Amino acid sequence: MAEGHIFPKQQIEIVQVLEPKGYGTAGKELLPVMAKNLSLQEGDPGYGKSWKYTVFNQALQDHIKPLQPGARFLADIEERDRPDSQYGPDRNINQIYVDGKPVSQKQSGGGWRGRSLEDDLVLEGVKRRSIEGQTAIAQVGNVLTCPIPIPNEALGIDDKAWFRILDKYWQAIERSLDNFLADPKKTQESAPKPADKSQDKQGKADKTEKVGKPPPPPPPEKRASDPITDPIKHVGDLFGRAQKLDPPITREDLVVAMNVQDVSQIMNLETAWETAQNMSKSRAGKNP
Fold first, then answer.
1. Is the distance from CB of 115 to CB of 107 less than 8 angstroms?
2. pLDDT tens, 60-111?
3. Among 102, 199, 234, 279, which one is least packed by beta carbons within 10 Å?
4. H-run or E-run covering 79
């Protein structure tokens, strides 16, 4: 998104106040205004022209709405280029001055900066993705906790797709739990402290010597043929590994072998993984 350029205290003349428009999902409104910038010098491309300006701040909207065509005021104008579009630049009215005093008292840093429509749309997109993610997690959770097992055919997916969804589901659950259990105080305490500038020369020499030591060699890379020794993280991880066995073990195979009605009833994941490996080895022996 292009950075906006602020033109402070421009003389603005109202041409027409248009109808407010809603945007976002929180009932917000923006106010479009047709106006002229009388501070432009003759010869400027915008001299004498009427441009559309957008007003996001509620206090500024309340000030402009009752104004009639021809009304003038001083305002801070922001222009944002749109290099990827044939439209633009976007023009916003960020502040209005009456008797030298700002109408809006909302401050940010050294001066008032109105949030553009693009910024609000980005925030709305973040909220939408969050809601969609929560809804998806709830839907998978409902399938796992359903008292009557739902076959994959009824879900409209195959085993491979189901394992992939399960793996993402448990990853999302683990990440949510990590965020919930995170202690901001511990995080702050564990942050590296600035170096003590008062240390003596000997301390600096010791530090230099430690830094100069080569790091330990990295562990050898795992080969595809090496057995998986990492602990099973969740049910999705279990099914994913079972599918990679040769021959593969399906979800239905494990449900029957573990003598359960549904995958959510598998309590010991390590035992289930060992069972899947033994089943695969047995089938490989029968089908050389």
1. no
2. 999 999 999 999 999 999 988 877 666 668 899 999 999 989 998 864 433 4
3. 199
4. strand 72-80
Cβ(170)–Cβ(233) below 8 Å: yes
Residues 12 and 71 in one domain: yes
Answer whether residue 120 is part of any domain: no
pLDDT recorded at residue 265: 79
Asked whether residue 150 is domain-assigned, the answer is: yes
In a domain, 127, yes or no: no
Contacts of 64 (CB under 8 A, 6+ apart): 14, 17, 31, 33, 55, 93, 96
Q: Pseudo-torsion of CA 18, 24, 27, 30, nearest 10°?
A: -20
Q: Tell whether 156 and 254 lie within a shared domain.
A: yes
Question: Is 0.85 topped by the overall pTM?
Answer: no
> d(Cα 68, Cα 14) in Å, to the nearest integer?
7
Q: Which domain holds residue 85?
A: 5-115
* CA gap 254, 159 in Å, rounded: 13
274 part of a folded domain: yes
- Token digits for 249? 């073990």
> What is the Cα–Cα distance from 129 to 124, expressed in whole angstroms?
9
pLDDT at 61: 94
Domain count, the chain: 2
For residues 177 and 257, state if they share a domain.
yes
Query: Cis peptide before 218, with omega less than 30 degrees from 0?
Result: no
